[in-house]
Amino acid sequence: MGIVAIAKNKLFTNPNDDLYNKGWTEYQSGEFQKSIMSLSGLDIKEYPKISMALGDSYFEMQDYKNAEKYLQITFDKHLFKNVDEKKMLTNMLGICNIELKNYKNARFFLEESEKLGNPNSKRNLQILDSLENRNNK
After folding, report:
1. What is the 3-state secondary structure (H, E, C) of 65-96?
2. Which of 5, 21, 98, 121 could bond to 113 as cystine, CB 3.0-4.6 Å?
3. pLDDT averaged over consecutive 10-residue blocks of the chain (137 residues)?
4. What is the model's pLDDT at position 92?
5. CA 50 to CA 27: how far, in whole Å?
């Protein structure tokens, strides 16, 4: 009976699960470049939660265009687990949009983050105000 259970587990596991686990471990270890390499090989429809790990990894690498892309997927699909994750996610989206000079989007996300109680959002909104004032002169 035990051999059947082992064979069944080996036959019915998705080979991408190993890549997912590897990428997730790399992400949690702060190996963001490796994490991106591993997780990018997966189908985001099959593993939707990788969008946050990819977004955060790109964010940490200061690749704000790709970070914004994956963080936006996380936001749109409501893949956050709790308010603290949503506070962090909206603040990160705000920062990405500041870096990409999409100030209207940045304001939306930073105000959302501030409403949720993220203390960093107030400072980031002040930075955004300063950038907008400088661009309007």
Report:
1. HHHHHHHHHHHHCCCCCCHHHHHHHHHHHHHH
2. 121
3. 43 74 94 96 90 96 98 94 93 97 96 95 93 81
4. 97
5. 10
Q: CA nearest 93: which of 67, 117, 116, 127?
A: 67
Can you read off the two tokens belonging to residue 135?
């661009």
Compute how many other C-beta atoms are within 10 angstroms of the C-beta atom of residue 93: 26
Distance CA 2, CA 107 (A): 58
Half-sphere exposure of 128 (CA within 13 A, CB side): 26
Output the pLDDT for position 88. 94
List the structure tokens of 41.
Answer: 């090989």
Using a 10 angstrom Cβ sphere, with 0-12 exposed, 13-18 middle and 19 or more buried, the burial of residue 131 is: middle
Say what angle helices 64-76 and 83-99 make with each other, to 10 degrees. 140
pLDDT at 40: 94
Spatial CB neighbours of 10, under 8 Å, sequence gap ≥ 6: none
Which distant-in-sequence residues (6+ apart) come within 8 Å of 24 by Cβ?
Answer: 35, 39, 50, 53
50 — phi, psi (to 5°)?
A: -70, -15
Q: How many residues make up the chain in this entry?
A: 137
